[in-house]
Design a protein that fits this description.
The complex is a heterodimer of chains A (172) and B (121). Chain A is of the alpha+beta class and 172 residues long. Helices cover 29% and strands 33% of the residues of chain A. In chain A, helix 1 crosses helix 3. The radius of gyration of chain A is 15 Å and the shape is globular. The two termini of chain A are 21 Å apart. Chain B is an alpha/beta fold. A five-stranded parallel sheet of chain B has the order 2-1-3-4-5, with helices on both faces. In chain B, helix 3 links the parallel strand 3 and strand 4. The radius of gyration of chain B is 13 Å and the shape is globular. Chain B starts with a strand and ends with a helix. Classes of the chains: A alpha+beta (172), B alpha/beta (121). Chains A and B meet through helix 1 and helix 3 of A and helix 1 of B.
Chain lengths: 172, 121
């Protein structure tokens, strides 16, 4: 089973909604691409998906972008390596993943509690049986990436166009 | 008017508290999960609860069912990323009075709070 364009669009929409409502800055997206090798991040938030979609979502930041985005989100200067900072990152992941999975029409998907990793240039390996897509995101506060890794997925209902697999996307 | 905020995220509790303060609510208590909320409800006796769904130890829907087993008066607004129709129906069946989807703007959740409390009057 493969990640479909409709899944990707769900993540684009939920990310835009979050940045429009609670973070208060525009976000734009570069072309999604198939993950080819681990990406280095300074801060990453990870949340699991279960049910009709089994996999995980990772949001990866460099340090400056994470600090700037958390500062905008909370309205207070963000301090790295604190429980409050990790909590804010976790909530960003929660709302992006939660908003996206709600758009998976006709599918029953649950999300877990987020985990946050803070370590310079760390890498997170996706599940070995998973197909992984990276969505590069751009904001005035800095860029970040959304990694979607699905190990199995029940096909979405809907048109053939919505269900187009993303196998044509260019590799990173 | 006493308000209990139930959410495992300190960030969300802060954001919701700031909305409530702007609306004029001053007597605000916080709980970090459903189990914590059960004990706080008994002691604090809130008029309104802002309730997250996905929390460790005891989630929001379980707390709501437990609450409604003995209390049908306290107003409860579910504040959650769970926006699928099936989830909303489940929350209504469990006894929620209103539903706010995260992420939200301060204006949108303010209106939901005001509507909920106006309906309670």
């Amino acid at each position: 089973m493969s990640i479909q364009a409709a899944h990707i669009n769900a993540f684009l929409e939920s990310t835009k909604t979050l940045f429009d409502t609670m973070i208060g800055m525009p976000v734009s997206f570069e072309t999604p691409k198939i993950k080819d090798g681990n990406q280095p991040y300074d801060i990453s938030g990870v949340i699991g998906l279960s049910g009709d979609v089994v996999g995980c979502v990772l949001i990866g930041f460099d340090q400056d972008a994470a600090i700037n985005i958390v500062t905008k989100f909370t309205g207070e200067p963000a301090e790295l390596n604190t429980p409050d900072f990790d909590d804010a990152i976790g909530e960003v992941v929660n709302m992006i993943a939660g908003g996206a999975k709600a758009k998976f029409e006709g599918m029953d998907v649950s999300i877990g509690c987020p985990s946050v990793i803070t370590s310079p240039k760390h890498q997170v390996t996706s599940p070995s049986a998973a197909e992984s897509i990276i969505i590069p995101c751009v904001t005035a506060a800095g860029g970040f990436q959304i990694e979607i890794s699905f190990r199995s997925v029940t096909p979405l209902s809907g048109t053939a166009e919505r269900n187009t697999p993303v196998t044509q996307m260019k590799r990173a | 008017m006493r308000v209990l905020i139930v959410d495992d995220s300190k960030t969300m509790r802060k954001i919701e508290r700031s909305v409530l303060v702007k609306l004029g609510y001053e007597d605000i208590e916080e709980a970090v999960n459903g189990q914590d909320a059960m004990s706080k409800v008994a002691a604090f006796k809130p008029d309104l609860i802002l309730l997250d769904w996905n929390m460790p130890i005891m989630d929001g829907i379980t707390f709501l069912r437990n609450l409604r087993a003995k209390d049908t008066a306290t107003r409860v607004i579910m504040v959650t990323t769970e926006s699928e129709k099936s989830r909303v129906i489940e929350a209504i069946k469990a006894g929620v009075n209103n539903y706010a989807v995260k992420p939200f703007t301060p204006d949108s959740i303010s209106k939901i709070i005001e509507t909920t409390m106006a309906n309670a009057a």
